[in-house]
Design a protein that fits this description.
5-stranded parallel beta sheet, Rossmann fold, alpha/beta, binds adenosine monophosphate
């Protein structure tokens, strides 16, 4: 069995979720989004949801201990044996280390960086906030989430580049256009 372990990384608003669904379908693996897991728990008013709601609405990161535990549980589910596409995790250096301990040598095959200009993604998110009324999408929070990304997540890019697994893709443009670039980039890196 071919196992495909991927990560998609990029600023909030770059369109990671949309593209993640397509990539995961293509490789026959589950897309695992920590943001989606947290939002589902907030919606369902679970204990976890109550714990993380205020943090998420402020644009800060949920504590690593909690986030790592959720990912560990998810990766232990049956559908992850064929691999997975992580979306939104790991998001800082500590989480990269935690993931490495969890998977014990089953390292990522490729990391897709969806690049997008900050002003462009902020504009997109403001528009989405207007349409959907998301609680974490006030302008102040949107900008804060971009800062958190730049400070905590962007440094990971260099690390994956050094490992030779980074695939850079321009995230601006039509969804299909970006999907094609991703497909070309991943095929070149993975050979499949
Ligand atoms: P996202 O949909 O990936 O942008 O995630 C929405 C929010 O969930 C983030 O702004 C964080 O508050 C929280 N979150 C998602 N993934 C993580 C993570 N890996 N570590 C910490 N917090 C996270």
């Amino acid at each position: 069995m071919t196992v495909t372990r991927l990560l998609i990384i990029g600023p909030p608003g770059a369109g990671k979720g949309t593209q993640a669904t397509r990539i995961a379908e293509h490789y026959g693996i589950p897309a695992i989004s920590t943001g989606d897991i947290f939002r589902a728990n907030i919606k369902g008013q679970t204990e976890l949801g109550k714990q993380v709601q205020a943090i998420i609405e402020s644009g800060e990161l949920v504590p690593d201990s909690l986030t790592n535990e959720i990912v560990r549980d998810r990766l232990n589910q049956d559908d992850a044996v064929s691999g997975y596409l992580l979306d939104g995790y790991p998001r800082n250096v500590e989480q990269v280390q935690a993931l490495e301990e969890m998977v014990q040598g089953d390292s990522l095959n490729a990391v897709l960086l969806l690049e997008a200009d900050t002003d462009e993604v902020v504009a997109r998110l403001l528009k989405r906030a207007e349409l959907e009324g998301r609680a974490d999408d006030t302008e102040e929070v949107i900008r804060h989430r971009q800062d958190v990304y730049a400070e905590q997540t962007l440094p990971l890019v260099e690390l994956f580049e050094e490992r030779g697994i980074l695939v850079r893709v321009n995230g601006l443009g039509e969804i299909d256009e970006v999907a094609q670039r991703i497909s070309d980039g991943l095929t070149a890196k993975l050979g499949r």
